[in-house]
Amino acid sequence: MNDGNQLKRFVGASKYVLDDELAKIVNISMALEMPLLLKGEPGTGKTMLAHAIAEALNMRLIVLNVKSSMKLIDCLYQYDTLTRLNDSRFGDSKRDVSNIEEYIRMGKIGQAFVSDERVVLLIDEIDKADTDFQDDMLDILDQMHFDIIEIDKTMKAKNRPIVVITSNAKKDLSDPFLGRCNFHHIAFPEPDMMRSIVQVHFPDIDKELLNSTIQAFYRLREIKSIEKKPATRELINWIRALRSDPDFLVKDLIKGHIPYLGVLFKKSPDLFVAQKALGHFRP
Amino acid sequence: MFVDFFYTLRKVGVPVTPTAFLRLHQALSMGLINSVDDFYTAARAILVKSERYFDLYDQVFAHRFEGVELREPDENELSDIARSLLEEWLKDPQMLANILGINESELGKLSPEELIKYFLERLKEQTEAHHGGSKWIGTGGTSPVGHSGYHPGGMRVGGISRNRSAVKVAMDRRYRDYSQEGPLTQSQMGEALKRLRHMVPVGPKDKVNVSETIYQTVRNAGEIEIVFERSLKDRLKVILAIDNGGWSMEPYVEMVQTLFNYARAQFKDLKTFYFHNSIYNYLWEDPQRYYKPYPVEELVRFDQATRFIIVGDASMAPYELMAQNGSIYYGERSGRASLDRLQFISETFPHSSWLNPVSVFEWKYTYTIGVIREIFPMFPLTLDGLEKAVVHLMRKN
Hints:
The structure holds 2 protein chains of 2 kinds. By secondary structure, chain A is α/β, with parallel strands linked by helices. Chain A contains 14 helices and 9 strands. Chain B has 16 helices and 9 strands. In chain B, strand 5 (282-284) and strand 6 form a beta hairpin. Chains A and B meet through helix 2, strand 1, helix 5, helix 8 and strand 9 of A and helix 2, helix 3 and helix 12 of B.
């Protein structure tokens, strides 16, 4: 255990409102050198957390956006055979064709390993990939080294990165995977928490607008049979839209007239349902 | 040692592994946890891996840490833990070795008896190490009392015989998963369903076809000619219709859930429907079978090549299947027998089969199973049955 790591504690960042509980969990995962798995509704700030950790601890952030078609090897390294073939034909590059190592390019996990400084590695939306990918990846992150077969070389991590993994819980993750992570579920923020989140983004927002937008927002979230409920991101964009509209008056909102619904509801059936539901709200 | 806590969690159904438990101790010994609050969050992050269990965890935590005295574990409990450690070790020696900070190969040399002994001693060390540190336990009447005084090297004779049986238990566990008749696990389903796929080339031409490239290059007298092609992707469409209602399916819920979880992970193009007992006018898209009905006639909109898999016990009163108004739900009476509906589905989707969790040897006792078997090829929901079903579903004609 490196003492330097313990001194570095995560206490929040400029654009991220951190609750105590999550701060503790982040710090414990950092100390135990275990990946932290974050689950929760979209828009609860799972991805933002990694950005905030990187910002607060002044580390580089490497983001691996998982896609369903991804293979593990792509995240580690790539052997650029085509460039090598090309070089061997025309010989006009400075690379040494007989040295395969010059044609190995690091993937995202590889980059995190070879970096001279400790980095934050964000593995975003792990649940998109299949189970084998997940298990194999955790093996790599556990052992902190992988082999490059083409040059018979083992890449060892210079510094153990801080690993944050997010999942939208579309699929259940496998047991061995869960066994190797610390887990936290980020609940959707309470109105009070949301108020401070909005204030971080709009420091100069006036109280009346803040209160009435948040009230309207939570009321809209309660409409039944909405497929994708508006989340933090939508709220912030919505407030931005309201503030940039010179004709908008806060008291319209209180009366139940809600403009720019399209910013909050991204799916047309949802928008339709919301409009219908709002019809009942109006006096 | 919070052995009680650990076991209470397991007893109420939170899947906590000994490895995670050890990790919690690692965190404790690193001085990361300085209050009951810290302990609460840390233990939850480390031990509980799904928000489904957060509530249970809270209950256990409250029960365990409010005014209840902590007591040191006795020899029995320690050997229980040591046994589960052995199980863990069998599954993944390396991980455990890492946590304990010892060399895996050294552990490997030990006999099972020695291993148990070794784990026991490690656990005792942990106990003693943490005994002094009452700091992280905090207040509220939870300070550890009554250290029962272990001899570091000593072990009772009775302990040894227990250990031997423990090894046996661990071994039994280990092999049961491989047996054909055993309950289906996710990985076994994976094995069985692996062949259920339909590879077609899609997307941009971004894959080098090596042999074709060599061929063309040679034809070109050495002038390199790279041949690209589309990569193969699984484009199999699957519809899964699950009987999720009624008492008769209750015993099989877990098995069906495993299948369902696997299917969700495996198939890109999966549509799930629910029904109760048999299929009448509607299938439902929501498990409550309430909000989103889907008319059976509309199924023709799906691709004919879709594999239609029905999971259900096919056991019901004959009239539910044969009578024109057979549904047990009043609002669903339509004038067409369920049998006709099933016939319709099997005609719409030539590749269909029925998976039945009831074991084959009971099939002949239920009349409706016999009738449905005439419409859909039926297979038992076992490893063997799944394999046969997959072969059937992937037949060319």
